[in-house]
Amino acid sequence: MKDYDVVDIKGKKFLYSPQVEDHFFNPRNVLDDKTDLGQFNASAEIGAPACGDVMKVYLLIDPKTEKILDFRWKTFGCASAIASTSVLSEMAIGKTIDKAYNISAQDITKALGGLPQKKIHCSVLGDQALRRAIDDYKKHYLGVK
Amino acid sequence: MAQQNIYFDNASTTRVDDRVMRALAPYFTKIYCNPSNIYSSGLKTRAAVEKSRQVVARFLGAKPAQIVFTSGGTESNNLAILGSMAKFKKGRIIISAIEHPSVLKPVERLGRRGFEIIKIKPGRDGVVSAREIAKHLTNNTVLVSIMYANNEIGTVQPIAEISRIIRNFRNSKHEALNSKSPLLAGSRRNAGQAQHSQLEIKKFKLGEKAYPLFHTDACQATQYLPLDVQKLGVDMLTINGSKIHAPKGVGALYIKEGIALEPLILGGSQEMMKRAGTENVPLIVGLARALELISNKAAHKTKKISDYLIRELGKIEGAQLNGSRHRRLPSIINFSFNGVEGESLVLRLDARGIMTSTGSACSSESLEPSHVVRAIRDAESAHSSLRISLSRYNTMSEARRAVKIIKEEIIKLRRMSQ
């Protein structure tokens, strides 16, 4: 994994990796304001505005296959927070909830081509939000406590 | 997209003025002798340094012997604080909670070494109250350091008023000292404490009536506010080349005569023994030239642009101006836009050719949001702050273009966050 704190900065035009740049400027699966939230069957929110990062995650899970059919999100945060939620949405869609549950902050960081060390802890919250949403699904739709 | 980039980050640093470059260039390659040399070429560089010192002194209403050249605002602030406090082991130091790190850090170091540090919080308008400072003056107060104008939100502090209060305090302390009366201005003490303050009086010799010293960091104020040290009534004042279209790496400190100052950098006897090291002749020449180029006309133009920006950006829903609307520099504008994280906005504006900065934690090394916005607003606002800082090179058409782009990017970021 590249560490962008120590990478050669020659020719570098963006603070983060090309993958972060891509997801930050072209975020995937952002929740559209016109979308009816009723179509999702799980959701979670994590973070606090006072801490600088808030992430809301909405999932549509197929009850039969337990696959994540749709993953929509809203994120208030810095570029790496936005990019990490965006890349996570792509990673999670199509996975079963069991598999998606295991996506770690490290997996997200890797998919983004690395993040500055100090950013990983604070901006990669998406995996926690996803796990919380899956817990929410199990609790409300499957009745698991 | 053949459009020029817009540089709206002049509080970080400014481009060097071409006229400054022309003035300083010969001192790199043609007139390069060490000013301490006694042959004729050395005398030439010595003359350039001393002429520059006169220019700086005149600009500040001071005497040339009161000006020390340094490597910039940070060194000047460090020298003012650590240098003037070197003779003390303890005492009270009063600063504002919104000082630049180059004041905060040396003061905090003194705090760890036994000094008592009082940080005065500004009002919600980002202005420090002189009365609040008066309340905290005590007989053992040795230094007050309050910045002239804030580098993040641009608010202007009442320096002349604070210096008047300090002067009155010193005089009454002096009188009390002579009459051996324990009744000292500014202190409300009970009988037990009165006895204690009498002991304090004995410790203060007549020569100590210069204390508390009053220092101001005028780096951001230099181009826009009256800088006459007599009228301001300060004992030490910091200026910085890189904020006024001179190169990075040069600054100056005004030090009133009679103030004992230990140098931080030891070596040769340059700068009246207050700052060792061969004088940085070209940059010193550049600093002086930059001061000569400061004009009211340019400041008026900057004011017009910032008035426009404040008016237009203020119309954006969920926008709030950080710091007083009127007690501010014309060059620094700071807004919080709710739902818009600062680093994200700065990076998106950069992608569209506009350079700005933020007090957002996410862009700082420490991951702590701006201590300045934090001192006057909530943490969320600090995470959502955008600073635009202008110079004489900015134009109204840049401002119009920027407003349009800022509005667009705010909409995009809010779509992701709200």
Task: Report what the structure shows.
The complex is a heterodimer of chains A (145) and B (418). Chain A has 145 residues and is α+β, with helices and mostly antiparallel strands. Chain A has a single domain (6-141), classed as Sufe protein. Chain: A, CATH 3.90.1010.10. Chain A contains 6 helices and 3 strands; from the N terminus they run H-E-E-E-H-H-H-H-H. Chain A starts with 17 loop residues before the first helix and ends with a helix. Chain B has 418 residues and is α/β, with parallel strands linked by helices. In chain B, strand 6, helix 9 (229-232) and strand 7 (236-240) form a beta-alpha-beta unit. In chain B, helix 3 (40-60) runs parallel beside helix 10 and helix 6 packs parallel to helix 7 (159-179). The longest helix of chain B has 22 residues, at 396-417. The radius of gyration of chain B is 23 Å and the shape is globular. The two termini of chain B are 31 Å apart. The relative contact order of chain B is 0.16. The chains are: A alpha+beta (145), B alpha/beta (418). Chains A and B meet through strand 3, helix 2 and helix 5 of A and helix 12, helix 14 and helix 15 of B.
Which ranges of chain B are low-confidence, i.e. pLDDT below 50, for 5 or more consecutive residues?
Answer: 181-195, 201-207
Any low-confidence stretches of chain A, pLDDT <50, length ≥5?
none
With helices defined by DSSP (H or I, 4 residues minimum), what is the helix count of chain B? 15
CATH structural architecture of chain A: Alpha-Beta Complex
- Biggest sheet statistics of chain B: 7 strands, mixed
Q: Averaged pLDDT of chain B, please? A: 92
Number of helices, counting only DSSP H or I runs of 4 residues or more of chain A: 6
Largest sheet: number of strands, sense, barrel closure of chain A: 3 strands, antiparallel
- Overall, the morphology of chain A is globular
Name the largest protein-protein interface in this structure. Answer: A-B, 26 and 23 residues
Q: Mean pLDDT of chain A, rounded to whole units?
A: 89
Number of DSSP strands of chain A?
A: 3
Derived from helix and strand composition plus strand pairing, the structural class of chain B reads: alpha/beta
Apparent shape of chain B: globular
Q: What level of helicity do the residues of chain A show?
A: 25-40%
Q: Tell me the helix content of chain B.
A: 40-55%
The total tally of domains of chain A equals: 1
